[in-house]
Amino acid sequence: MRRTGIGIAAGLATVIGMIGLASAQTARPAGVAASTSHDGQAMFMAKCGYCHLDGGTGTMMLERRLGKDKALLGERSDLPADYVKAVARHGLNSMPPITRVEVPDEELDRIADFIASSRKKATGK
Amino acid sequence: MPDTLPPNLTAPAFSKALSAFTRVVGAQWVMSEDTDRATYIDPYAMGDGLHHAPSAIVAPANVEEVQAIVRLANEHRVPLWPTARGKNLGYGWASPAMRGTVVLDLGRMNRILEVDPKFGHCLIEPGVGFYDLYNYLQDNKIPLWMSVPGNAWGSVMGNALERGLGYTPYGDHASKICGMEVISPTGELFRTGMGAMAGSKSWQAYQHGFGPSWDQFLVQSNFGVVTKMGLWLMPEPEMTMRAKIELPRADDIAWAIDELHQLRLNNVVDHNFVFGNFMHDAAVVSQRSEWYDGKGALPDDVAQKMMDHFDIGWWRFTLSLFGHEGMVKAREKIVRQALEPHLGKSIEFVEWRRGDPIEMSSAGRPSALALQIVNWRGGRGGHMGFSPVMPPDGQLAHKQFRAMKARFEEHGLDYYTSFTMGHRHINNVNLLLYDRDDTDMTGRANKLFNALITDAKASGYGEYRTHLDFMDPVAASFDFNDGVLARLNETVKNALDPNGVIAPGKNGIWPRAYKAAGPGEGA
């Protein structure tokens, strides 16, 4: 996957210099129309990428809770698909729930299968 | 989650209405299960948010379906709460004001219908998000810039309809609306401005049309369901310059607001910007527990340690200059003359010219990073915005800052604020950050919010936007001539929407049919 955001690895000093609201920047969800793609990875990028790519707010939250090696959702393979779906629909801690209008069941199935898969082609960056 | 019905309806009557909705949009897009309804409850509410629980959700795919649903809502007396993408973070999410209202989720209507590079405008549907439009402009190499809010997960149209703010010269989003397509509360399709003429060639060119202007009438209102919006976009400038400026002392606000007001009023700086305290950035890149475990508000000495650690000031703001190089350089000189004598040092600007990486520019680029603030206390974090409008006067801003800080401390909450500089006003955006699972804290936050409404009113300041929980008291604070504006709004509402089906209670406007569910008769 593309690296398009400000990397957490770039360090706190860099991040704090960039997060003024006038210049807030983070990873860019892929410009892929998920509704026309059957690719779970592309759907993950388009629908979850707001927060769960490198530098995203979800990635920051996961790093704080679980450590750096579990921060990038797109790189993990320890999450069962049903768990992913439950978190998406119910939210978790500061993550809000995702409606079936925003991500219909058939799309969430593919996204969850992608996240659960241990055969990812690339990383979640 | 308890079953919920719209007021005045029996379960069989409501079931009949949902069946009628289903015949329009299909079974997949009428949702009344608990699991679906729960996704529309404010995830950052002070309490459980269930007092704003919807009874169901209906999600049309096009304007014809919206029109059919609104007509059926009138026939079956079902109240609808239109939402674009439902990301009104800090103000109630996608929840309706009145418990039992059916959410009319317009997120499936997400087409970018037109972008005109020559005339600098777009025509979009409700479900188009900031990322969608940004990607479209980038992918098609269209030299137009968007203005985006601090948190850009939501809808371009929804944000403009709530008078959201961005930080380019086009940052007063409601003021850039030019023409709408609307379903009236009784199900009529109409277009505003020049679009009221069939075959109009200037729908997105002129905001007012002939006769009364309706666009602003539909902002923060419940007078219709907007299905298309024209919006002006900013031509890519030749050059931008950007500087992040730190003010080390809390009391620096007094001189700074006076100087910045002159720069804004005279359009030397021609964009809104956040004049925020250290918490803006510290609450994103760190958590409270890293600094302080005490129950009360963050002490000043701890705050100073944070500022020292991150090498940031008590106040921080980013100024940008946009335009042709000669104009930008002339403005740079004026900014330096105004601020550098106070700062005692030279301002460092980052320059961008066409062709340079966009990251170096002052273009609005979408981000959801600001949402990280809800994690300030960890656990199930919540936030709510209190945002009165005040004059851009240094002494008044200083007085307001000191009074607000004292109120936050009195209620044991950390003071997070911005004196966001508009053209001729300040949006004093304060965020209450709390742990949703700490009932003592959410109780204090609730008391604080009510105290702030009263304080602001006493100072002559009213909110520009508020959370669902506080729409009635904020509306009541606009009380000139015994609250005549509220009566006027309700007269209009009852005339346009005799069955009161569109967003009862939105911004404190209650139709006759649901008055009892709101503040009640005579309130």
CATH class of the largest domain in chain B: Alpha Beta
Content-based structural category of chain A: mainly alpha
Calculate the terminal CA-CA distance of chain B, rounded to whole Å. 30 Å
Q: Gyration radius of chain B, to the nearest Å?
A: 23 Å
**What's the tally of helices of chain B?**
13
**Total individual domains of chain B:** 4
Q: How is this structure best described in words?
A:
- The complex is a heterodimer of chains A (125) and B (523).
- With 125 residues, chain A is mainly alpha-helical.
- Chain A has a single domain, classed as Cytochrome c-like domain (Cytochrome Bc1 Complex, Chain D, domain 2).
- Chain A has helices spanning 12-18, 40-52, 57-66, 81-90, 105-116.
- In chain A, helix 4 (81-90) packs across helix 5.
- Chain A is globular, with a radius of gyration of 14 Å.
- Residues 1-28 and 30-37 of chain A have low confidence and may be disordered.
- Chain B is an alpha+beta fold and 523 residues long.
- Chain B has 4 domains: 11-105, 2-Layer Sandwich (Uridine Diphospho-n-acetylenolpyruvylglucosamine Reductase, domain 2), CATH 3.30.43.10; 112-235, 2-Layer Sandwich (Uridine Diphospho-n-acetylenolpyruvylglucosamine Reductase, domain 3), CATH 3.30.465; 239-362 and 388-464, FAD-linked oxidases, C-terminal domain (Vanillyl-alcohol Oxidase, Chain A, domain 3, 3-Layer(aba) Sandwich), CATH 3.40.462.10; 472-517, Vanillyl-alcohol Oxidase, Chain A, domain 4 (Orthogonal Bundle).
- Chain B has helices spanning 11-25, 34-38, 63-76, 130-139, 156-161, 253-265, 279-285, 300-310, 325-343, 394-410, 439-459, 471-477, 480-496, and strands at residues 30-31, 56-58, 80-83, 102-105, 112-116, 121-124, 144-145, 177-183, 189-191, 225-232, 234-235, 239-247, 276-277, 315-323, 350-353, 381-386, 388-390, 416-421, 426-435, 462-463.
- Chain B has a 5-stranded antiparallel beta sheet. In chain B, strands 16, 17, 18, 19 and 20 form a 5-stranded antiparallel beta sheet that branches.
- Chain B is globular.
- The model of chain B has no long low-confidence stretch (mean pLDDT 96).
- The chains are: A mainly alpha (125), B alpha+beta (523).
- Chains A and B meet through helix 1 and helix 3 of A and helix 2, helix 4, helix 7 and strand 14 of B.
